[in-house]
Specification:
By secondary structure, the chain is of the alpha+beta class. The protein is 35% helix and 27% strand. It has a three-stranded antiparallel β-sheet with strand order 3-4-5, covered by helices on one side. A three-stranded antiparallel β-sheet has the order 6-7-8, with no helix packed on it.
Length: 165
């Protein structure tokens, strides 16, 4: 877990902003926060200037080591980002045709499928009373019903895949 410690030592007008990862610390080595707290106690107790400088130098070495670790982590992250393959095709394609939203993606098995343009749920054939043909409507029953019929879906998909020139 990363911890950001900010300490303002007013007498020395020293401001340290340090980010450290405590999981990499050993049990025998004092943490950076403990070193900063020790410096604060030294300042309030009126410790001699050479001892204060020694503690500040120790903290500066720790900060430099942490900065080097941070730069290394940034480099590692950049290498990971560039090594991951990028897709040449979009992961999801979307088209509207006759008021119906069509999506082709890995979720649809790479096939164009009809979806409700109102709520985004899959569109299914629905039976309306007195109708001989099935209309396309929302599977979530949000109220959207297309004016197109089920038998027209295959033709719409062909038009999307092969648009007229």
């Amino acid at each position: 877990m990363a911890l950001t410690a900010v300490l303002h030592v007013r007498r020395l007008r020293l401001s340290l902003v340090v980010t450290t990862d405590y999981t990499k610390r050993t049990k025998n080595m004092p943490t950076l926060q403990e070193s900063i707290d020790a410096l604060d106690r030294m300042v309030t107790q009126g410790t001699s200037v050479p001892e204060l400088r020694s503690q500040i130098a120790f903290i500066a070495r720790e900060v430099a080591a942490l900065e080097a670790e941070y730069v290394g982590a940034l480099d590692d992250n950049a290498k990971l980002q560039t090594s991951q393959p990028t897709s040449t095709t979009p992961s999801e394609q979307e088209q509207f045709h006759n008021g119906i939203k069509f999506i082709r993606s890995t979720k649809t098995g790479g096939k164009w499928m009809a979806f409700c343009p109102k709520c985004g749920q899959p569109a299914l054939p629905i039976h309306e009373r007195g109708q001989h043909f099935l209309r396309i409507g929302c599977s979530a029953r949000c109220g959207w019903v297309s004016k197109s019929f089920e038998e027209h879906l295959a033709g719409m998909v062909k038009e999307i895949e092969n648009p007229p020139a």
